[in-house]
Amino acid sequence: MADMSVDLVAVERRLWSGRASFVSAQTTEGQIGIMPGHEPLLGQLVEGGTVTIVDTDGTRIVAAVHGGFFSVTGDTVRILAESAEFSTEVDVAAARQVLSDGSASAEAQLAAQARVRAVEQAGAAS
Question: CA 102, CA 71: separation in Å to the nearest integer?
Answer without folding.
Answer: 36
